[in-house]
Amino acid sequence: MAHKLLLVEDEHMLAYTLGELITLLYGFEVFLAGSVAESLRLIETQQPAVILLDLHLADGSGMQVLEGARRLGSKAIIYVITGFEDPELDVQARSLGAHDYLVKPVDPKELKAKLDEAVGRVTHTQGD
């Protein structure tokens, strides 16, 4: 059974392309969300193991998704992805439960390493 990954990105073409790539290369079952509301609905209904989260969304901030995921009791490994480096946002995101903070454009090798790490953590957790 494939692990579930939620990709939160409001640039639809980027989300679709990246989602297809993640499915083909890494074997995740990918769910796409382009808004805070849609993200929280999918976190609740699909319970993804991994979340790739853009911080800037049309209807709010990825920080709202982080807060909502915590409120919903999500155990997902969350990687925040944003277009610019900001140490304060990094600290804030981690304090809300983000595992790591990646800057766009994300290097494919770095993304693969993060997804491999996430699969290892998820597999280890499920084995407990």
In spatial order, strands of the major sheet run 2-1-3-6-7
Straight-line distance between termini? 18 Å
Oligomer designation? single chain
What is the share of helical residues? 40-55%
Estimated share of beta-strand residues: 15-25%
The profile of the biggest β sheet is: 5 strands, parallel
Mean pLDDT: 90
Number of helices: 5
Low-confidence stretches: none
Features:
23% strand; alpha/beta; 7 strands; two-stranded antiparallel ribbon; 5 helices; five-stranded parallel sheet; 128 residues
Quick structural gist:
With 128 residues, this protein is an alpha/beta fold.
Could you explain how this protein is built, in words?
This protein is of the alpha/beta class and 128 residues long. The chain contains 5 helices and 7 strands, in the order E-H-E-H-E-E-E-H-E-H-E-H. The protein has a 5-stranded parallel beta sheet, sandwiched between helices. A two-stranded antiparallel ribbon has the order 4-5. Strand 1, helix 1 and strand 2 form a beta-alpha-beta unit. Helix 2 packs parallel to helix 3. It is globular and about 35 Å long. It starts with a strand and ends with a helix.
Topology of this structure?
Layout: E1 4-8, H1 12-26, E2 29-33, H2 36-46, E3 50-54, E4 56-57, E5 60-61, H3 62-71, E6 77-82, H4 87-95, E7 100-103, H5 108-127
Parallel strand pairs: 1-2, 1-3, 3-6, 6-7
Antiparallel strand pairs: 4-5
